[in-house]
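quick one before i forget lol
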Amino acid sequence: MNSQPRPPTIKDVATLAGVSMSTVSRVLNGSAAVQSETAERVRRAVTQLDFVLSASARSLRPGVRSMTWGLLVDAVESHYFSTLIAELDRAAQDHGSTLLVSVTQKEWAREKHLIKEMSSRRVDGLFVVPANGDVLGERSRLASVPIVYVDRIPSGVVADVVTFDYYKAMAELVEQLWAQGHRRMAFIGGEVDTDPGSRRYAAWNDILRRHGSTPDPDLVSVGHLVADTATEAVVGMLRSDQPPTAVVTTTGLLLLGVLHAIALEGAGIEAACTEEIDSAFLSPVPLTLVAADFKLLVSNAVELLTARVENHNEPPTTRLLPTGRVRLEPLRSSTS
């Protein structure tokens, strides 16, 4: 895997195309005063280097900043991402910058497009919640501006990353439930072959095996992208001959599905999740949530981005941040 490189400059394009920087500038500006064969060489060099015009502007005007940051997230309606956006917007204002937010919908092709689009708009740097799907390793060639990846560890590139220690968070949840006497714990997850789901699922398996318990495949259901399928899976488990005494899930969206199933079945069990939701206080059963400090996440991300803006050659850093736990008791018993 490659380290995050410095952004390509107009000089790099000129060297690769075998022309002067002024010729490159004329081609980028659409001038008709350049021979078609020369212009084509410049365009091929631009494509090969993943060069964008904003990199040209910065190379010609060193030290000039747009005072704008970009943020790419999955969605804006979830509790997790709306909190992240709010905290990062405050941080941008504190630094005299404006935050531009775009939604990737967890699609790699859209993330790639938006990184190039943000770069062309001369943002000083990007915070990116990386999508999956970069099977060709293209991400390592997209560093037209400084990038800090947030929440997830991206594939295909060694880069600046700030994320919570999801392995430890899940491990502590399972240990807590085990200490409470739960031996039949269900796991409801989303994608478990990519980060951060892979870290959470690994912790789930590791802790159970550490206690000499083999995870029951009938109590594991993964690949859920919406709450409804999580509800269906948990209802099936609760109606089985050996239902779970506790259910652990990974995201706020899936937790809504889990709690819906528990309410439908009137089950007196325990629930736990590695994310928080606004409506957690309405849980019909005891609920333990992982508490994430978004101010800590944002302050670390901003620190790495500002350092990367100042010096592109520093080695990339990955920071795993600690989490806490919050336990909520139901407003009323689900069996009353």
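fyi Residues 271 and 287 are 5 Å apart (CA to CA).
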